[in-house]
Structures are given as C-alpha cells and as structure tokens.
C-alpha cells in the first residue's frame, strides 16, 4: 500500500510518500512560497540528491499538480501511475471537540473543519485548501484527516477548562485544546516500545521543543494535560511566541501603547519569545552562541526557556503522581545537548539524573539518563508523517 502524506501551510506544502509494506519513505519534498514570487519545489527520491525546480506556483491546486508530476517523473519519480496511490493522509491542525481520532474525509468532515476555522484561522484554511485540491486531482483516492488536537481530547475538564464564565465555553468552545498531538502520541508510544514497557503502565512527560514548543503529560498512553491552550501561543517561551503571559498585562499594554487586537496578536506571536527577549534571533542555536560570549539578554532568553520547561516537567509529575520517563523531541529536543542538560539539572529530587556522555547525541533514539536514574530520560526523534501514514492505512483498510 502506497500512501501520500500532505502537510499544507498557507504558502507551503510538505509531502512524503510511504510504502506501508515496509513503512519506508520512497520520496519526500517541499513546495515553498505558494502564491508568492520565487516559488519552487524541492523533491527528493530516497537515495538520490534533491531536485529543485523554480517555477511559478499560484495556489495549492498548482502545487499538488507539480507534486504528482514529481512523483511520476521518469528521472526522479517513484510511481509509474497514479493508480499506485492507495490513499492520501492530511495533517489538519484543529478539529475542536469534533474529532478525537483520525477519520475518512467526506463532506461532513469538511463542513466540521470549516466550523473550526475561527479556532485556527492561520492553519485550517490552508489544510482545507490542500484537501480540496487533492480531492480534485485524485477524486477516487480515499483521503484521511489526522488532527493535531485529537490526542489531547482525553484531557479531563479540570485540565482543559478556563476559569471564565462557563457560557463562553458553551457558546464559543473556549477551552484548552493543545497542539503537536501527533508528535506527543508518537514519541510517548515509541519511548515505551524503546524501553520494552507497556505504555499503559507508564507516566511520561514529553517535550516537543522547536520553534514552537509544547510539553504534555501522558499517563497510561493518554494525554491528561498539555502546555499549549486555546491557541499554540501559551506554555514555555518559543522562537517568536510569548508563552504564558498574565492576561491583565495585555490590556495594560494595549491601553499604554494604543495597540489594537490584531497588532497585539502579531506582537505575541511574531515579535516575542526568544527573539523578543534576546533581540538577536528566534533560533536557539544563535542564542546559545551569543550567551556563551556573555550576552546577558541571550543568557536571559535561554534561561527562561529552560526554566519554563523545568516547571512544566515538575507540574506534570505532580499531576500524574509520579514520572517514569522524560522524552525530548523536535528540533531543539533532538539536537541541543545543552538544552536537555539544563532542563534536567538539579532534578535529582524527582529521580532524574542525566549522563553527560550519553547526552552527547543528536537526532537519534537514545537513553541519556544515568544507569541509576529512577526516571528514564530519552531522546526520540519525532515522526508525525509516519503516524499520519499509519492512521491512513488503518482507516482505509477497514
């Protein structure tokens, strides 16, 4: 069974083609700057150098046309005919409370996702454009939706509700939804498998750390709490996102600076976080480099991130009544030995002891805790695309 996985952004489209007999990636690529000058497609057949094609790509329909052409290419393609495609799996950011699991896409599902657009105005429209363009290109191929929010639908009310008048929840579905669910699901289950344990017997804190970061408490294989909320803004500070902020601060700044809601939203999402604190960059690698030179604002930004992660780990250990494993994943989590070291520093009271030599690892699965650490600390590279492909296969097979 061959499954194409799509992740559509507002001006980009990432894709991977899987052979699900072996779960091998046959090809992958990225279409950039859709509808913007300088658009291009970068396509890689496994085992071959990438092929980059600069071409005008006005919309997602045109982007998908070029993706399918690349997959069929006699030079760098992997398909002889589109009839070889058995299904398409779509990453969709927000499904609200409508879906707690992946589903076959039909008109009712599309209508439900349209209703969720106000909850994710930057992401869901792009996801829907990709779905509609692919349905038009391959009308007879099953399409499956896999949702970032689905894994967190197991959170209890005490974790997902906000302390605002209840009728706002009833009217607007104002609540904590959480994001990166596909990643948190994958790394928690993979960590259990890697340790030779049943995930149902484990209390795991998963740290998805990248330009966007979220921490999740996974108890017995289910998400019971997560750091992101109604939007992907709260939690620890991120590349350009502010993280947790006192709501009263926002009204104060709005009054003092005469900032309207749209401008405030831009400040909190695009000008804050590591960039806003350091004044240097949104990339932790740049900040670590400057901090090592003695830049005080870089030191502050870096320490705020590590301190924030540490607090969430402790809070979630308390929420679950213990912790068996701590997992680091995504760009920072997989590649920054310093970030992992600083988060785990002085956590021996929780049973977390990190081995500096084992921690010297990048981008591969590893246990980095000491042999006598009660809590296993792991690096598990995330693989959201594989989760989407597996869900798509299972749903289509049924």
TrEMBL record:
<dbReference type="GO" id="GO:0008776">
    <property type="term" value="F:acetate kinase activity"/>
</dbReference>
<dbReference type="GO" id="GO:0006083">
    <property type="term" value="P:acetate metabolic process"/>
</dbReference>
<keyword id="KW-0808">Transferase</keyword>
<feature type="binding site">
    <location>
        <begin position="283"/>
        <end position="285"/>
    </location>
    <ligand>
        <name>ATP</name>
    </ligand>
</feature>
<dbReference type="InterPro" id="IPR004372">
    <property type="entry name" value="Ac/propionate_kinase"/>
</dbReference>
<dbReference type="GO" id="GO:0005737">
    <property type="term" value="C:cytoplasm"/>
</dbReference>
<dbReference type="GO" id="GO:0006085">
    <property type="term" value="P:acetyl-CoA biosynthetic process"/>
</dbReference>
<feature type="binding site">
    <location>
        <position position="14"/>
    </location>
    <ligand>
        <name>ATP</name>
    </ligand>
</feature>
<dbReference type="InterPro" id="IPR043129">
    <property type="entry name" value="ATPase_NBD"/>
</dbReference>
<dbReference type="InterPro" id="IPR023865">
    <property type="entry name" value="Aliphatic_acid_kinase_CS"/>
</dbReference>
<dbReference type="GO" id="GO:0000287">
    <property type="term" value="F:magnesium ion binding"/>
</dbReference>
<feature type="active site" description="Proton donor/acceptor">
    <location>
        <position position="148"/>
    </location>
</feature>
<feature type="binding site">
    <location>
        <begin position="208"/>
        <end position="212"/>
    </location>
    <ligand>
        <name>ATP</name>
    </ligand>
</feature>
<feature type="binding site">
    <location>
        <position position="7"/>
    </location>
    <ligand>
        <name>Mg(2+)</name>
    </ligand>
</feature>
<comment type="subunit">
    <text>Homodimer.</text>
</comment>
<feature type="site" description="Transition state stabilizer">
    <location>
        <position position="180"/>
    </location>
</feature>
<dbReference type="GO" id="GO:0005524">
    <property type="term" value="F:ATP binding"/>
</dbReference>
<feature type="binding site">
    <location>
        <begin position="331"/>
        <end position="335"/>
    </location>
    <ligand>
        <name>ATP</name>
    </ligand>
</feature>
<comment type="pathway">
    <text>Metabolic intermediate biosynthesis; acetyl-CoA biosynthesis; acetyl-CoA from acetate: step 1/2.</text>
</comment>
<protein>
    <recommendedName>
        <fullName>Acetate kinase</fullName>
        <ecNumber>2.7.2.1</ecNumber>
    </recommendedName>
</protein>
<keyword id="KW-0418">Kinase</keyword>
<feature type="binding site">
    <location>
        <position position="384"/>
    </location>
    <ligand>
        <name>Mg(2+)</name>
    </ligand>
</feature>
<keyword id="KW-0479">Metal-binding</keyword>
<feature type="site" description="Transition state stabilizer">
    <location>
        <position position="241"/>
    </location>
</feature>
<keyword id="KW-0460">Magnesium</keyword>
<comment type="function">
    <text>Catalyzes the formation of acetyl phosphate from acetate and ATP. Can also catalyze the reverse reaction.</text>
</comment>
<dbReference type="Pfam" id="PF00871">
    <property type="entry name" value="Acetate_kinase"/>
</dbReference>
<comment type="similarity">
    <text>Belongs to the acetokinase family.</text>
</comment>
<dbReference type="InterPro" id="IPR000890">
    <property type="entry name" value="Aliphatic_acid_kin_short-chain"/>
</dbReference>
<keyword id="KW-0547">Nucleotide-binding</keyword>
<keyword id="KW-0067">ATP-binding</keyword>
<feature type="binding site">
    <location>
        <position position="91"/>
    </location>
    <ligand>
        <name>substrate</name>
    </ligand>
</feature>
<keyword id="KW-0963">Cytoplasm</keyword>
């Amino acid at each position: 069974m061959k499954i194409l996985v799509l992740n559509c952004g507002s001006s980009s489209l990432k894709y991977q083609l899987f052979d699900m007999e072996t779960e091998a990636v046959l090809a992958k690529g990225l279409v950039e700057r859709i509808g913007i000058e300088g658009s291009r497609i970068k396509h890689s057949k496994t085992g071959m150098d990438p092929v980059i094609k600069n071409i005008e790509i006005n919309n997602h329909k045109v982007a998908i046309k070029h993706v399918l052409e690349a997959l069929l290419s006699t030079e760098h393609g992997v398909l002889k005919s589109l009839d070889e495609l058995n299904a398409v799996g779509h990453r969709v950011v927000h499904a609200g409370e409508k879906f707690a699991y992946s589903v076959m896409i039909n008109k009712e599902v599309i209508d439900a996702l349209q209703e969720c657009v106000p909850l994710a105005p930057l992401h869901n429209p792009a996801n829907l454009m990709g779905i509609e363009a692919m349905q038009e290109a391959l009308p007879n191929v099953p399409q499956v939706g896999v949702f970032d929010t689905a894994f967190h639908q197991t959170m209890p009310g005490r974790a997902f509700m906000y302390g605002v008048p209840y009728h706002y929840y009833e009217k607007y579905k104002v609540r904590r939804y959480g994001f990166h669910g596909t990643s948190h699901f994958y790394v928690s289950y993979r960590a259990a498998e890697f340790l030779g344990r049943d995930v149902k017997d484990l209390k795991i804190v998963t740290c998805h750390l990248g330009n966007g970061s979220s921490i999740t408490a996974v108890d017995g294989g289910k998400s019971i709490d997560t750091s992101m909320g109604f939007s992907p803004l709260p939690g620890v500070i991120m590349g350009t996102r502010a993280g947790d902020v006192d709501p009263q601060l926002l009204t104060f700044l709005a009054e003092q600076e005469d900032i309207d809601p749209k401008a405030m939203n831009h400040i909190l999402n695009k000008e804050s976080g590591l960039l806003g604190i350091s004044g240097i960059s949104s990339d932790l690698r740049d900040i670590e480099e400057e901090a090592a030179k003695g830049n005080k604002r870089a030191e502050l930004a870096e320490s705020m991130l590590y301190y924030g992660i540490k607090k969430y780990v402790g809070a979630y250990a308390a929420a679950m009544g213990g912790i068996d494993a701590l997992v680091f994943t995504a760009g920072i989590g997989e590649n920054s030995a310093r970030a992992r070291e600083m988060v785990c520093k002085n956590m021996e009271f929780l049973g977390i002891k990190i081995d500096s030599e084992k921690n010297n690892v990048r981008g591969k699965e590893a246990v980095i805790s000491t042999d006598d650490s009660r809590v296993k600390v792991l690096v598990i590279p995330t693989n959201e695309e594989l989760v989407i492909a597996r869900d798509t296969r299972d749903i289509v097979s049924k």
